[in-house]
Amino acid sequence: MTKSIVRRAVIPVGALDTRFLPAAKAVPKEMLPLVDRPLIQYAVEEARAAGIDEVVIVTGRGKGTIEDHFDCATELEDTLRRARKGGALAAIESSDFGSGTIAYIRQLEPLGVAHALWCARRVVGDEPFAVVMPDEVIQAKTPCLAQMIEAYAQVGGNLVAVTPAARSRTARHGVIAARRRDDRLLAAAGVDDWPETGGGARRWAIAGRCIFEPAILDCLGTAGDRPFADVIARCVDNRTLHAYAFAGRYFDCGDALGLFEANLAHILARTDLAPSARNLLSRYARLASANNRLRLVEPTARQAS
Questions:
Q1: Pairing relationship of beta strands 8-12 and 129-132 according to DSSP bridges
Q2: What is the pTM (predicted TM-score) of this model?
Q3: Most buried residue, 246, 270, 289, 295, by CB count within 10 Å?
Q4: What is the pLDDT of residue 273?
Q5: Is 24 a domain residue?
Q6: Conformation bin of residue 162: beta by default, left when phi > 0, alpha when psi is -120 to 50
Q7: pLDDT given at position 191
Q8: Is residue 270 part of a domain?
């Protein structure tokens, strides 16, 4: 693996999981399964595949199972070895990234992404660092973060991953007005909920991957719980802000439909699961079109709000 110019990645997981209640009352949203692995594992695997040496997970109250997931499960591993369950053993060993590769920082209050990054400032130090949002999954042949690090080597500064913005779809982290520099690299012209465009600029939604210069950390300490787009606009000069239109499919797994779609896409990409999944989809498509034979369940008042 080529040595990365970005050595650390920060993964913020300290937020309140209000969009997945009651499922996330006792289980962190980042531990919800995407096929057969929790969301947080996809984030760590993407960072490691991009050449990241150290992952910094910023946790909060009730997130202890994330640390347990990446810990060694000696008793379980011994039991599986004695039972000669090699497949199950390999599955749990896939979450073992070795001692000293994951650090944990506590965010005492859920004050947003900017505050979580500020909490990691002493571990990050004076080097550029990556940010990976674990409930935003990007399915790509070359991991999104690896694509970004290659682009970052060309432009430096601050780099955010983007997808085409649409009024019909909420952009969780705001929208960038940007002009193309080449096939996938864009120069930012403004950041807002829905910025004005002109001079060839288009609107792009900020996705859950960023690379920042360490200087941004000084500004983040006073950001409070501001929306992330506001923080970027306030703390990053447009002259040093670039956007990257990555090659891949983006899934917002922070709500039920997004997680469902991500599961569907990842299952259909698996040779061991895709044939049976297609049969199930065909069956439910027939049921759904057969005069509403599927029993529909009304959402609770809280889910509907």
A1: parallel
A2: 0.88
A3: 246
A4: 96
A5: yes
A6: beta
A7: 75
A8: no
- Residue 251 CB-half CA count within 13 A: 23
Distance CA 208, CA 253 (A): 11
Extract the tokens encoding 58: 């910023």
pLDDT tens for 150-190 read: 999 999 999 999 998 876 566 677 788 887 777 899 888 77
> What does DSSP assign to residue 157?
S
Q: What single-letter DSSP state applies at residue 181?
A: S
285 burial (CB, 10 Å; 0-12 / 13-18 / 19+) is exposed
- Report phi then psi at 180, rounded to 5: -70, 135
- Count CA atoms closer than 13 A to 217's CA, side-chain side: 20
Residue 300 lies in a domain: no
Domain holding 42, by residue range, is 8-257
| H runs (alpha helix) in the chain | 39-49, 64-69, 74-82, 86-93, 113-119, 121-124, 144-155, 216-220, 228-235, 256-268, 274-289, 301-304
Q: Are 12 and 208 in contact (CB under 8 A)?
A: no
Tally of domains within the chain: 1
Is there a domain that residue 305 lies in?
no
- Residues 113-131: b if buried by 16+ CB within 10 A, e if exposed: bbbbbbbbbeebeeebbbb
Please give the structure tokens belonging to residue 69.
């997931």
47 beta partners: none
CATH code, 47? 3.90.550.10
| Residue spans of the chain under pLDDT 50 | 1-2
Which amino acid appears at position 205 of this protein? A
